[in-house]
Amino acid sequence: MRQWTKRQKEIIEFAIKIIVEEGLDNFTTKNLALKLGISEAALYRHFDGKNEIISSILEYFEDIARDTLRLANKFNKSIEKLRFIFKTRAENFVRNPGFVILILSEEIFPPDPMLTEKIKNIMLMNKDNIEKIIQDGQKNGEIRNDIDKETLFYMVVGSFRFMITRWRLMNFSFDLIQIFNKLWEGLEKLLKKEEV
Amino acid sequence: MRQWTKRQKEIIEFAIKIIVEEGLDNFTTKNLALKLGISEAALYRHFDGKNEIISSILEYFEDIARDTLRLANKFNKSIEKLRFIFKTRAENFVRNPGFVILILSEEIFPPDPMLTEKIKNIMLMNKDNIEKIIQDGQKNGEIRNDIDKETLFYMVVGSFRFMITRWRLMNFSFDLIQIFNKLWEGLEKLLKKEEV
Amino acid sequence: MRQWTKRQKEIIEFAIKIIVEEGLDNFTTKNLALKLGISEAALYRHFDGKNEIISSILEYFEDIARDTLRLANKFNKSIEKLRFIFKTRAENFVRNPGFVILILSEEIFPPDPMLTEKIKNIMLMNKDNIEKIIQDGQKNGEIRNDIDKETLFYMVVGSFRFMITRWRLMNFSFDLIQIFNKLWEGLEKLLKKEEV
Amino acid sequence: MRQWTKRQKEIIEFAIKIIVEEGLDNFTTKNLALKLGISEAALYRHFDGKNEIISSILEYFEDIARDTLRLANKFNKSIEKLRFIFKTRAENFVRNPGFVILILSEEIFPPDPMLTEKIKNIMLMNKDNIEKIIQDGQKNGEIRNDIDKETLFYMVVGSFRFMITRWRLMNFSFDLIQIFNKLWEGLEKLLKKEEV
DNA sequence: AATGAATGAGACTTCATTCAT
DNA sequence: AATGAATGAAGTCTCATTCAT
Lengths: 196, 196, 196, 196
Fold this sequence. Notes:
By secondary structure, chain A is mainly alpha-helical. Helix content of chain A is about 75%, strand content about 0%.
């Protein structure tokens, strides 16, 4: 896990803020420097260039996402693991809406090879972990077996992402946690093996 | 439904092609003109500006989406309506991958008020129609009642969108129809009232 | 005196209208064609190009200005000639504010040799005639002798032009004729030989 | 009074030079940058845009004009005040022909609200001050009373402006000071109360 | 650690004009 | 007499980045 200097953290923070609040179009070196109260040139003291800033944003969120996945292991039941992961994420979103970048990243970032690689890695890490948990649940009878793990992955992650997307589109105006709880209730009904 | 001249259709087509294949960053008037084999100035004979081209792309897809929603009414059962809508869309995607723009549009387009308005309208049209179908299904006992219609909407549309997103990220390399069929099977299981 | 076709007259009229109402910046072939309800290409059926239109505007006003100067000769007294000339012009302005172009022309038109030549000619014609009238008046004792004719020319024409300029700047909002009458009263006091 | 950096002053100077010598049509960012020996982009480090440069030109001249008006107060007699103002201006014009911009500004600058506002302010400042001086002169019997102050303003300022306009049209070829002296002699005769 | 000054590349757009029909 | 389609040249402006200080 990379260590950031104080200034670097500051830059990353404001970069996220701009992307989330003003859109990628307004994420320019000029605007970033302005918000930070420093010169554009100064940015290059701390990062090689703009894409390195984006890359760092991804790493920053990747770390958090990885932590969440790791922490999930303290739970025994698969469904509880999943609930922890998505609940934690929803809470992260509320605490720091900048987190939405993680979801948008695939779509909005410039086609730089380094970035693309990093994004694919994050997605893969996520997919692997979630699917593994689902698979375990299916094996031990916790999770329904009549839908394969990849489809369930699409359904769970897809609905979660879509909820987040809409939340952002509505300018973070609705109570995300409340909507999440309803969504998760539904998702549990979907996942659980029907008891006989 | 707006009528396009031959040239306008051509421009829209190539614009979509560029956005999908090369990303929004490469969707420049210069590139577009180059691909069309005309001068940049010529573009302005056919459209007021770049955003008007984007707007037209949206209208173009909106028309198709609306048609699909309308055609779905020939089915009696709610679930069949939904299956028709999403199946048709999946087929549209295969036939014309440019369709993904409809899904990306919320995130990638420049923050022009006219565009934002149009995008929100399309999303709303979609949400209204789908939720209405779900609601009808719930009323007549076809669709489960223990998850509210909005949550089901998130789940169905979210998984579908996520599947498309991944398909694009993988450069359209997997068989979308096959994956869709699996997904839809799962979604039907989710939606249907469990028979006693 | 050149003869204009009906269409040419129409084009000249609208050109003047645009220049006066919307400024030279908005006097484009596109805008002109739009206002006329014809295509840009059609303009080139009637005029060689934009500068030929401007040139024609100048000729159009030159004809009127020349007429006024000629008609002034029916008066015997120099001061009456002058009064007629400027009064007629003021009335022309009120009737057709497009006339202001004649005053602006030196400053605003593009540096085309043909245009510059034409403008200088109009100005010269005016200067020659007015100064001649002043000179005659000085000879026959009507007009004061202690200020040379060129200086008087500056004073009379300069004040008149300045009045027009301000009238336009105020969007033709004040009563030009009324202000003119006051101005002319003052100018007559300036011009007239003080009676002993 | 705004302070300019060295570069800003340089830019303003060259901008004036171009407008006066080559006309507004040739006052392009490209041409300006070329003359300065810097890139177009560099201009935008020093000014927000082209109109901000124009605006600065106006401010620059406004300061000078205001100074002249202020300095005029050291004279006791109204006519001496006026003579000082116009003589100083004539001298300014000779020293820096770019000054003509102040006179042309109403007509030639693009219809930007900020610019229009600034121009109107300058004109108003001028009118208010000159008319005030004329009024004072009328009150204390120095200046004739039988022509109202506004008409006298038209006459004095109008002739002066017209002289300048012609001077420019003749490419600054005649001796402005000499012509001005003759003009002023005439204007004094106009203004002064005839002694009995 | 930071900055002021600069820049090449390229963005979108408008202009007057031409030409085949 | 008119038009639809096109265009080269030029316009203003923004971008990420570099470099001397």
